[in-house]
Specification:
The complex is a heterodimer. Chain A is mainly α. Chain A has six helices and three strands; from the N terminus they run βαααββααα. Classes of the chains: A mainly alpha, B alpha+beta.
């Protein structure tokens, strides 16, 4: 499991989950699918943000360590009624270069940069910007809404 | 300009102030210094298709060879920015340093500027 398994912010879909519960819908399945789809999107977008165009000196000095640390194919895990899924970077992976993300809004070297290395603006928009997180939240809501419709139609 | 005002406030601490990432590769880290980075500048509100307020979102960071300075300086900067109307909602986070001799701490500083439809 990723050292940096995060709990995705589900505040935006809590009402929908409550509605799905009321309809005796497949809550666990819906939440799992929503979180894994969100994690997959974050993984793909993070990978794109690490492409040479967005790296310092267009990746000339990059050894690919940070890119190797990107969490991919994450699966949601449940602890009681709480689900979590790994997103971001797993610095415990071999060759990960020690870049760490400890939360949605906590970042490591790649995102905040250093005095000699500018922040990766693409990653900043993703991990610190409200717009991107809202986009993720909306996509998760779409998944849960799909299960609500399914429950209403009795499928 | 908001950024000019930010720099002015940061410079009042009598430490070098630079944009994050702009220290030349061959330049030594000063004993203590401040960096900043504009994360985003976005329209906060509009009326009749005219911008009425803008949010300026910055990271403000302190690097120092003495960790006590890293922490205390950032706190003081936070207090000074707050006194000038900046919104400071976190108490700091670790940031990476190029040099093992220095620790870095950063915080988010947000300014809401009313443009009155300018």
């Amino acid at each position: 499991m990723s050292r940096n398994t995060l709990k995705l912010d589900t505040r935006g879909i809590e009402e929908l989950i409550t509605k799905l519960e009321g309809l005796n819908g497949e809550v666990k399945k819906a939440v799992t699918e929503a979180m894994e789809k969100a994690a997959d999107k974050i993984s793909r977008d993070t990978d794109a943000a690490m492409s040479p165009a967005f790296l310092p000196a267009h990746g000339k000095y990059s050894q690919g360590d940070t890119k190797r640390a990107i969490v991919k194919d994450a699966r949601a895990t449940w602890s009681g009624t709480e689900a979590s899924v790994g997103v971001g970077f797993d610095y415990s992976k071999k060759g990960s270069g020690g870049v760490l993300i400890t939360g949605y809004y906590r970042t490591g070297g790649a995102i905040n940069g250093t005095a000699r290395m500018a922040p990766n603006q693409k990653l900043k928009e993703m991990y610190k910007g409200k717009k991107y997180m809202l986009e993720i939240s909306n996509e998760m809501a779409d998944v849960v809404n799909g299960y609500i419709v399914k429950a209403i139609e009795g499928n | 300009m908001v950024e000019d005002t930010l720099i002015e406030i940061l410079e009042s601490f009598k430490l070098p102030v630079i944009r994050q990432g702009s220290l030349p590769p061959d330049a030594a880290y000063p004993p203590a210094f401040i960096t900043f980075w504009n994360n985003e500048t976005i329209e906060h509100s509009a009326y009749d298709n005219e911008t009425t307020s803008i949010t300026y979102d910055y990271d403000v960071n302190v690097y120092a060879s003495d960790p006590e300075v890293t922490y205390s300086q950032l706190r003081q900067i936070g207090a000074a920015l707050k006194a000038q109307g900046w919104i400071i909602t976190d108490f700091g986070f670790d940031i990476s340093s190029d040099e093992i001799t220095h620790t870095g701490r950063g915080m988010q500083a947000v300014y809401l500027e009313t443009t009155k439809g300018e």
